[in-house]
Structures are given as C-alpha cells and as structure tokens.
Amino acid sequence: MKPRTFKTCTLAVMLFSLEASVLSRTAVAQAVDPAELVRDIHAIFGEHHARAVHAKGVVLNATFEPTEQARQLSRASVFAGKLQATVRLSNTTGFPEIPDADPNATPRGLAVKVKLGDGSEMDLVTHSFNGFPAATAAEFDTFLKAAAASGPGAAKPTPIEKYLQAHPNAVPFVTQQKPPPESFATTAYFGVNAFAFVDASGKKTALRYRIVPQAGEKYLDTASAASKGPNYLMEEIAARVAKAPVMFDWFAQIAQPGDRTDDPSTPWPEDRQLVKLGTLTITEVAADQERLSRSLLFLPNNVPPGSNRSIR
Fold first, then answer.
1. 129 vs 50, 67, 248, CA distance in Å?
2. Which among 20, 172, 190, 210 could bridge 301 via Cys, Cβ 3.0 to 4.6 Å?
3. Are 121 and 113 in contact (CB under 8 A)?
4. In contact, 278 and 79? CB cutoff 8 Å
C-alpha cells in the first residue's frame, strides 16, 4: 500500500509513547490487537524495514545523577546514585528519511534507558508536546484508521476530521505543535503516562515526567527552518555534544486531587508542583548507530520497584 502523508501525521508518536501501557496491557484489556495497531501505522507510512514510528533518530551515551528530593519521593534504585544511560533523540513518523524541519517531523522524541546497579534497566519515554490525542487503546485504533483513510481525495469531512470533532482533546495535539527547534537540546519533553512513586514509608505520589533543557527552549522561525538541511538536527546534536555535554533536568509534575491519571489526552494544569528528580547529561554520540537504532526498545512501563507502573 502506498504510504499516506496526511498533514497532521503527528499521530505517530502515539505508538512510541504508549508502547507498553497501550500495546500490551491496555490493548489486551480493550480487545485491541497490538499487531493490528502496527498494521495501521504501516498503512499510513508504509513499511521501511525500520521502526514503525520515530524511524529517524540518533543514539547517544549519557549519565543520570539524581537529587535528594527524588530519594525522598521514591525508594526506587534509579535514585540511589549516579548511573549510566542511553538516550535516543528522534523525529516522529515512520519515514526514516523525513527532513528534520518538516512540520510532520514533530513532536520530537526523547527516550532514555537507565542502567541500574543490579544490571536491570529503567526506561523513560517522552515527546515534545504536553498532551496526547487519544485516551485509550480503542481511541488509538480509531485514530489510526481515520488517519489512514484521510489521504488525498477523501470525501469531506474526512475520517480524521470527524475524529477530531468527536475528540476535542486531540485538537491541540494536531494544531498547536511547536516550530522546529534549533536543536534537540533546546526543546522540552513530556511524559504521556502517569506513574506513582512510592517512598520509604509506602506513601504513593501520582506524577508525570517532564524533561527540561538546561540550554533553554529555542525554536526556528519560518525562514530559518526553510534554510535548514534535511539532517540538521542530527548533525547539530553531534557537533554540540562533541564540544560540551548536553544537559537536561528531569522533573516530576505532581498530581493534585481531580487530575486525571488514566487519561493521557488531558494535560494537568501548569501550576502543579514540579520536583527535580535529577540531571541527565549526554556525553557523546554512541558507536554503531544502525545496530542500536534497530535493537533498542524503550518501554514506559519498564520501571524498578518504588515506581509503580503507569496508572490506567
């Protein structure tokens, strides 16, 4: 099937962000076949013998150093001390050759695999938009099918237009994306799923992740974006980290009573408390990019004791 290129194909991040919680547990609970979701992704982007989504990216080596506030909030071993990590920065969509400044390349992805002291791993999965266009696996499936059916020549209103009308929480995701960033290092990233941290006394705290660049948020205007080469983000981050480490702060956004922890399409208010969990320091581009990009799998629900799995 010829891949479709519908204007708001930012839907691709959905598979990236809900890999574990939707494609495994929730998908089964709602009788949605994970394989069917992947087939729907391929109906939109085609099969490129690469990742179904976030096909274009770069893998880097990093370290994570936690704060004392993180240890007070959670007993998880990831906050015990400084650890090694692997980071993948990426564009959305399943097109491995998509130009970095293409509007359909957003939101960007930042995924982290932290190597714990006992040999196990913890994954963080985030993207560069605070919100999400589906609340459940069933909505996800509907969204994908609507997108695949909304190519050139589709009757108006198209299936995707009908979906957005019926799901107003999805509208900001497909209409309010940020411009291309100056760098992967100059945009913030947001977790989709809500988690519950458990402290030493057993107290649980519901939260969402937020990754904030120490370099500040900086984006390109239209003229600057048009002047960029097709791989400018990949080239820029390699040059930047070769000169100095690239640093991000990992925060927990703390839920308040009434905040939905089971609906990723509903962002929490911006006045919610942010607790700094630690600093992620990217040190170098990893060797063997092709092998790592194919083999690395980042699962949001891959968390150690002291970090309850996503709340749904």
1. 24, 25, 16
2. 20
3. yes
4. yes
pLDDT in tens, 240-296: 999 999 999 999 999 999 999 999 999 999 999 999 999 999 999 999 998 898 888
Give the SS3 label for residue 267: coil
| Residue 168 DSSP code | G
Return phi, psi of residue 62, to 5°.
Answer: -155, 175
Q: pTM here?
A: 0.85
CB 90 within 8 A of CB 108: yes
Chain centroid to CA 9: 15
**Of 184, 182, 173, nearest to 135 (Cα)?**
173
Burial class (CB in 10 A: 0-12, 13-18, 19+), 18: buried
**CA 57, CA 100: separation in Å to the nearest integer?**
10
Whether 276 contacts 250, CB under 8 Å: yes
Name the CA radius of gyration of the chain, rounded.
Answer: 19
Instruction: Identify whether the C-beta of residue 130 lies closer than 8 Å to the C-beta of residue 145.
Output: no
Task: Report the catalytic residues.
Answer: 54
Please report the DSSP string for 62-102 in residue order. EEEEE-HHHHHH---GGGSS-EEEEEEEE-SSS-TT--TT-
Q: Which fold has domain 9-308?
A: Catalase HpII,  Chain A, domain 1 (2.40.180)
Local structure of residue 278 (DSSP, 8 states): E
Q: How far apart are CA 307 and CA 312, in angstroms?
A: 14
